[in-house]
Protein 1
Amino acid sequence: TPERRRNLRPSGRGGCQEEIGCVGAPVMLAELRERGIRPDGCIVGEPTSMRVIVAHKGINAYHCCVRGHAAHSSLTPKGSNAIEYAARLICYIRDLADHFKQNGPFDELFDVPFTTAQTGTISGGIALNTIPALCEFVFEYRNLPGVDAEGIFQRIQQYAAQELVPKMREEHPGAGIEFKKIAAAPALDASEQDAITQLVRALTKDTDKRKVAYGTEAGQFQLAGVPSIVCGPGNIEQAHKPNEFVSLEQIAQCESFLQKLIRSNTVDA
């Protein structure tokens, strides 16, 4: 399924439970470099209904741990409320998302034509009458190709360090905010002049230019110097939900495509 990345949720135990991540491609790329293998191109077989995808957004996921100080709720000046400061940071992330939605940059070929951001899960507190000492949440942003992904995180980190942490430490010197990157995959922006793009277009007879909001490993291969494209069986609408499936018709189209691809490489050799 697209991204094959971590499903992330706060554990409630000072850490973040992590399931499978988008981590296989970097291992493969490292192995290829070690063996001196330089692929001419890469086709990532994510579900595109066997249509050509020339670009997708980058994905960047972070775990945030806000540490305050516990106290009885009747003595609020003696504590530092981790949930409330986490809420301020989450609202700032939403403000960034609204800024991108309103001001761009925009690329109308994408189904969602601007960079997005959102908070996915949150956990904090132990009781109504106790000021929470800990709040954890995970957030992500999906950047258009050409948008500085690290720059977005720096804005979030700077807001936390300059606007929130000083106020927290006025309440308790041990308070603070910590971030951990838990998943990242760069955006893809394939060139129409790349041989792999032209080959896949010729084999599929698909000349339309399409870009998608979900992420794949194609950006990792492109970043490593391997021209890449996305084309595979199935549809994103059936992914990441109960009973996800790929139709037999799509499998047959993919088999036909692969046979043509093998024959094209045989002729070229």
Note: Residues 149-171 form the longest helix (23 residues).
Protein 2
Amino acid sequence: MGNSFDAEDLTQEVFLSAYKKLSEFDRTYEKAWLGKIAANKCLDFLKQAGRRTIPTADTYFLEIPSNDETPEENYLGQEAKKKVYVICNQLATPYQEVAIKHYYNELSVQEIASQTGKNIKTVQTQLYRAKAMIKKIIERSG
């Protein structure tokens, strides 16, 4: 059972259960009857053990998926992403679409080409020009 406290509790439950059902017992194979009660109580206990576990602080925080970012880094990343979106929205129409997909949505050139139906070279050219325009916007805003 893992520890003596649980074993003692189960022993008491086994004998209590046996006492309650004593009137139904036919008085043959006492050891087998008591052993069967004990085995069933132990199996029930083990089935419920998974539902009873309470995570401790050290195991709880290990189970939480971590991206190794502090809340501050996460916030700054979100703010930077918003800024990228605002800057990309300032571009002219064909460049705006490509820039948002590449810099904001983080899609590759191939993914953008397949989504838009454009040639890969066209997407590369538009992305190259969008990058130059973004650089000018950033330099102006300073």
Note: Helices lie at 4-20, 30-52, 57-63, 71-89, 93-104, 109-116, 120-141.
Protein 3
Amino acid sequence: MLDNEGEESLKSTFSTFMAEGDQLFHKGQYSKAIERYSTALQLQPGDRNCLVARSRCYVKMGEAINALKDAEASLKNKKKFFKGLYQKAEALYGMGDFEFALVFYHRGHKLRPELQEFRLGIQKAEEAITNSVGSPSSVKLENKRDLSSFHKVDEHKKAQPKNFIHPLKRDRSPYRQKTLRSERTAKQLLGELYTDKQYLEKLLKDEDLIKGKTRSGEKLQDVIMDCISYLDTRTKFWQQQKPIYAHERDRKAREQQRSRARNRPPSDPTFYVLKNLEDMDAELAAGNTESSLKKAQEVLKKVQGWSEKVLPNKTEVMGNLYSFIGNALMDLGNMGKALENHFKDLELAQQSKLMDSKSRALDNIGRVYARIGKFHQAVKVWEEKIPLVQDELEKAWLFHEIGHCYLEMRSHTKARDYGIQSLSAANNIRDEKWQLNANVLVAQAELKLGNYESSVLYFETALDQARALQDDDASAAIQKALQETRQQMPQ
């Protein structure tokens, strides 16, 4: 009993130091924040979130080397920890290693494509490379740094720098033997990644470079060939998923939209909306939630004064703005106002029969209800969303969240049933993360229902998945739950 109390006391103290560090960071008192985080790490050595937080302080203070050490420590035994990847990229960027920062921004973007931070990181790294080296043809790539990050090509194969190109003479390459037609197809399907592929093909022609090895002993030639092979495989995949004419049509549509926006005067409504949406996203990604909220409210007020003739997609734009404002308010903890804006988004979507917008609004409304503990309302809203969902990944998430709400409501049979549906959707796309989450949910529901053997089986499966994902925190929690479940089994 005393051991448990001591453990809880340590956790409480750790959380206190973390909270104090966060407050000091937001006040700009980075040195003092580092002291708090360092004390917290003495209580819980190796805590990933604390290491990332301290790394963030070091970046702000210009101590990029210390920032890099903490970021790399947070990635120990968990290479896909996206917060650590972002901090590593930020530290490398601060050190001026823009090419390698770009690699880790890309790697994080592949893991969490919905996060704006990684997209902005990619953009600023590419701009820094261009500004620092000038014309790509003037750059000499030197084999001095550790390129072992290119070894695990399954994590970031599209992360090769676009503008860091070595001047190479033309000679043999197995990839140059393709027909012009297949090259055109690859260019259309890969889009911006096609320049990455060309860059890699040119590297193969540098005989001095390809003879080199990474620190892990991997031949650079093999690493480059693996990356190119990945892009070729991706080309084939995209070609199967979507006809070439559709890719070409979408590309031209995007280019025309950007071109129209650039060519229009600042007074043009479409230009105004697009520009402000970009600015709002940037503000939000930078952590300036209040500033982005204020801008969104200003844009909404202006759009409301326009007619459908001035802005043909006025309803859709207003829905997007209400959604943005609702999410910003939710981040700021103003759940009542957040709910109001998401309901306005829903109302516009229903009036104009915009199914995607309706699905988005129901999603957000459910999240607000769940955050404030109104699980009955969350379930009601999310169950209305189910017929609108086609994507298996979204199904896995949605069924899991509904099941978790039922678990909170002590409706254990429904919790188990939704957990099984979530698991089925996750299995269909072989998503390990959601397979893990769904197995834990089913195990918890079965435990509450007194089905101990079944609960043990699901916990055991979840434990194997957590270990495969190298998620130490999840493994420890599941191991503890598994032991407690086994103790409750009748002898």
Note: Residues 133-182, 236-251, 261-266 have pLDDT under 50 and may be disordered.
